[in-house]
Amino acid sequence: MGDIFKFADELGPLKVIHVYEPSVNLKAVLVVDNVAKGPSIGGVRMAADVSTEECIRLARAMTFKNAAAGLAYGGGKAVLYGDPKMPKTEKEHLIRALANALRNEDTYIFAPDMGTDEECMAWVRDEIGRVVGLPREIGGIPLDEIGATGFGLSHVVDVAAVPGWGLHGNQTRSKTVSANQRAGTAGTERAGTHDQPPRGQVFGARRHPRAR
User: Fold this and answer.
1) Of 23, 59, 60, 169, most Cβ neighbours within 10 A?
2) Three-class secondary structure of residue 19 per DSSP
């Protein structure tokens, strides 16, 4: 695994937790990167080739994204080893087992990510209740249906196209839209929002309190 402290800096990570429950073949990692602005939120990514290093980097990205959005949340991430296309009953057992293993980690709030979805978050809600990204039927917002990921990508590209970032206005945006239209669901969502005016925002994450 190597020395995980080589990834540490003044912002975090606050916690790196490895979860192992052989009775259900559960192997997972939780990284709580920074809680200066509040409890961490970040999705549960499920894939056969995830790693602790990937989880640390994704958690840091969530610290920056939540700060950039002005949310009262820090950054965290969980990765779950396994094939997201496994039989539904097996996947449910893993997700529920992960939720229970992290029941007392109240610095982390579950959310969906690659390989997990709103139904997975409903299973987490059944177990511990500390979750966002729920199905519409139980009060959640249908993020995929409204194109939330593509809308976020739209803002990123628009900010990058602002003069001074080294990109070239309409030419760059035209090429980006063309590429996004070939980039799956999020790309299609982004292509539909590219006429939004560019906006920028300056943000910062504070050093997290280490004594809690």
Assistant:
1) 59
2) strand
